[in-house]
Amino acid sequence: MKINLALQSELLILNSCINNYMSNNHFRKGELYSFITGKASTAIARRLQKKFNSSGMNLTIEQWSVLYHLWKQDGISQQELCNATFRDKPSITRLVDNLEKLNLVKRVASENDRRINKIFLTKQAQKLQEQTMELAEETLNEALSTVPPEKIEVCKEVLQVVYDNLK
Question: Model's pTM, two decimal places?
C-alpha cells in the first residue's frame, strides 16, 4: 500500500510523540488522556481569563464561550447553545441569566413555541467581539509560538479524529 509523503510525515511525528513520551514514562496512559483533554485547554483558558481581567472586562471564559457562539449565529435557542458549548441546560441557564444581568444578551420567546427561548446579543455584547477575539488570538499565538505549523496541523487532525470517534 502506498502512503503519500504528507501522511508518512504525520505518522512519523505521531510515532515520535508516542515513542518520546510514552516509552520514557513522561506520560502514563491516564496522564496522556488528561493532558490531551485538559491541561493545555485549562492553561489557555486561564491565560485568556487573565487577559480579560487585565483589560477590565467583567467577563468569564464560560460567558465568553456563549457569546462566541452567538457571534457566529445570533438568536439561537438555549438548547442550541447547550449543544454548541457542550454544557447542560442548568449551566446554560445560569450563564444566560448572568449575561442578561450584564446586559450582554436578551432572551426572546420563540414566535412558534413559547417554551423555546432564543438568545440575542445586545449592542454592548457586539462591541466586545473584536476586543475579546483579539485577546483570544493573542493567547493562542502565545500558546503555539514555539510549535512548528506542521505539528499544529497534525495535532488538529488527530484531535478531530478522536472527537469524531467518540461523537
Answer: 0.76
